[in-house]
Write a structure and sequence with these properties.
By secondary structure, the chain is mainly alpha-helical. It has a domain of 66 residues. It is built from 2 helices and no strands.
């Protein structure tokens, strides 16, 4: 039959292990919260990086498109300029601006 001192020692040991387990659980909860926050921050940085990368690739493709079709784009801009000039003159030939009337 175990003695009172052995049972008292087992009780104290059991109480100590209970507090140790409770403290370990609290630390695990805080650790999981911090881990979640750090993963969330990392995910946000990755999201911003991916968005910037996508934007850069879009502009890269746009520049490649313009450079590969520069002759076509130049022809369209030139045609638009000529059409605008034609519309402003409404088909009239270019003449000198009439002189303002002279005052005597």
């Amino acid at each position: 039959m175990p003695s009172v001192f052995e049972q008292l020692g087992a009780l104290i040991s059991s109480i100590f292990h209970t507090f140790e387990a409770a403290l370990g659980s609290v630390i695990a909860v805080f650790q999981s919260i911090l881990t979640t926050i750090f993963h969330l921050i990392g995910t946000m940085f990755a999201m911003v990086g991916t968005a910037i990368k996508g934007l850069a690739e879009t502009f890269e493709g746009l520049i490649k498109f313009f450079l590969s079709n520069i002759v076509v784009i130049g022809a369209l801009v030139g045609a638009f300029f000529l059409y605008t000039a034609y519309q402003q003159r409404r088909g009239r030939s270019i003449t000198a601006k009439p002189a303002p009337p002279r005052k005597n």
